[in-house]
Amino acid sequence: MVTLETVLDVIPALSVLIALIYYTRTLRNTEQERRREQILLRHQMHDLPYMESWVQLMGVDFNSHEEFVEKVRNNEALFAKYVYVGTRYQNIGLLLKEKMVEPDLLFQVFSPRSIIRFWERFGWHEKILRERANDPEHYEAFEYLYNEAKKRYPDINPEASMLHA
Q1: How far apart are CA 20 and CA 73, in angstroms?
Q2: Domain span at residue 28?
Q3: Are residues 158 and 113 in the same domain?
Q4: With the CA atoms of 96, 99, 104 and 107 taken in that order, what torsion angle do they form, in degrees rounded to the nearest 10?
Q5: Of the candidates 163, 157, 56, 149, the residue with the CA atom closest to the CA atom of residue 109
Q6: Residues 10, 82: one domain?
Q7: What is the rounded distance in angstroms from the CA atom of residue 95 to the CA atom of residue 21?
Q8: Is 18 in the same domain as 60?
């Protein structure tokens, strides 16, 4: 026969079990929502203006900081595109650095090749700007993003053409 004491002993265990089930389902739903948000973010981040800006910037020929300043920094339209792309990578890097996105998912959504190529093309310029402006945090999250991409994908050749793969 079940006594009142037995029922009172079972109730806390059942409460813990119900709470555990609820917590597990909540975590799973939260993770699924984060993944959906990342896919939507990709849609927002890979729009035509971004792609056009990235391609145009990668086509600028310069070999020194002075040439960069002359060809990009002193050209308002081109410099705006540079800030547009660089700020996107800075924001993505910030999400990664603050652990607001899973690295594996992020690099499925955003091409590590593109990140690596852009930083290797322009990162040295950013380091010069940091020194000259005494701003060591300038595009720091972008550099973090680059370092994570290099660490996770060491075999990526950023110069290899995707068109002939």
Answers
A1: 56
A2: 1-45
A3: yes
A4: -10
A5: 149
A6: no
A7: 29
A8: no
DSSP string of 32-71? HHHHHHHHHHHHHHS-HHHHHHHHHHHT----SHHHHIII
Rounded Cα gap, residues 7 and 142, in angstroms: 58
Pairwise CA distance, residues 31 & 103, whole Å:
14
Q: Are residues 39 and 92 in the same domain?
A: no
pLDDT of residue 38: 65
- pTM of this structure: 0.72
Q: Calculate the alpha carbon distances from 119 to 25, 57, 101 in Å.
A: 40, 12, 20
What pLDDT does 87 receive? 93
Kindly state the tokens that stand for 116: 């690596």
- Which DSSP category does 138 fall into? T
Residue pair 101/150 in contact (Cβ under 8 Å)? The answer is no
Q: How many domains does the chain have?
A: 2
107 in Cβ contact with 149 (< 8 Å): yes
> What is the mean pLDDT of each successive set of 10 residues along the chain, which is 165 residues long?
73 77 78 69 71 93 92 95 94 90 85 93 91 92 97 86 47
| The two three-digit tokens of residue 28, written as one number | 């799973």
